[in-house]
């Protein structure tokens, strides 16, 4: 009877130890998972912030480039129009003035 009790107690102790080990392992795993989740969240946040900053910079650069290109095209078109208008005005003035000047 004593041997059986000892065996049972020993078995129960072993079971308790195993349970404790399992609980410790689970706690460690949970801690590791929490750390991993925190690390992943931190990395994601950093990456997102960097991406937002980079994308914002890229968007600003693209907007500036587009504005500069539009302004340049507008200026070129206006310059061409002014040149065409000036040339037309010069041609018209020559057409008007030279026939009048030539007979005189």
From TrEMBL:
Keyword terms, alphabetized: Membrane, Transmembrane, Transmembrane helix
Protein name: ABC transmembrane type-1 domain-containing protein
Top-level lineage group: Eukaryota
Residues that span the membrane, as ranges: 59-92
